[in-house]
Amino acid sequence: GGLWKHTPASxxxxxxxxxxxxxxxxxxxxxxxxxxxxxxxxxxxxKVQATLEFSQDFSRNGSIKSLTxxx
Length: 71
Prior knowledge:
two-stranded antiparallel sheet, mainly beta
């Protein structure tokens, strides 16, 4: 079998009083084989863990299921 098409994911940081308090996935993307490295512009100190979702729907397979800020 071949690899499925990759579509980049995107998210927006929720910032309160200068601190990142959460993340909102704006597009889950698809085609990820392993969780991508997530970086937040201007907040290099924030570490984020991405969780993937796999399904039989190839248009959504390997999409971002959740983003969690790692304390």
